[in-house]
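Recap from last week: sequence in, structure out.
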Amino acid sequence: MIKTLRNLKLFKLIPLTLATISYANYANAQQSSPHIKPFTATYTIIHKSDPVGTGVRQLKYLADNQAEYSYHSDIKWLIFSDQRQETSRVNLVNSSVTPVEYKYAREGTGRDKHYHWTFDVANNSAEDLGRNKKRDIEFPSDIQDKLSYHLQHRLSLIATPTQKTFTYPVISTSGKIKDYTYQYDGEEELMLPYGLVKTIRFKREVTEKKRITYAWFAPELNYLLVKLYQMKSGVEQLEAQLAKLEEN
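Predicted structure tokens:
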């Protein structure tokens, strides 16, 4: 069971301190991306019906049409512990997200991991700061990092709510690019710690890893992710449910 938890891509469709943002930065951000207010969303993470931790996802706007999208989680279960912090700094224009910087840190039971990348998408270059290596990469125009695609997916749902399939090219921490595809999987009304919400459900399947992720988004909350369920080889990995939402 501990091995199962250790191998989680913990709560990455969902994923932080309270947002802080100057009026000037928010005003500038509204001109480029008026769709989402700065927010902090807190989730209860569940394993086999038991609460085992919390996850927090946050958006705040910066100067020069940039935003910071971040996620952290803290999980403790029996002798297992896992703390993760992930941050993506992006350029944000209208409904288009372009990654600029990506940071990831994982500590706890098992091997710790730390990654730090910067991206110059216009010039097809990137730098792996952790390994002190520069890379020439032929970026697709809609490239995303391993966190920014969650923000892009929410913006895509707002812009085209009836679309059934969404595919995002995502650069990994090794510099490889792989398509992540989400397929519409129905509608459902959920009772969450946050309350009763109507949702649309999407499914992402990674066949080679035998992993399936289901993600629920609430149109009434501007397509915020409100629930996540992940399973691998038919075994539940985790569930996360929205508990609290603060918009600034």
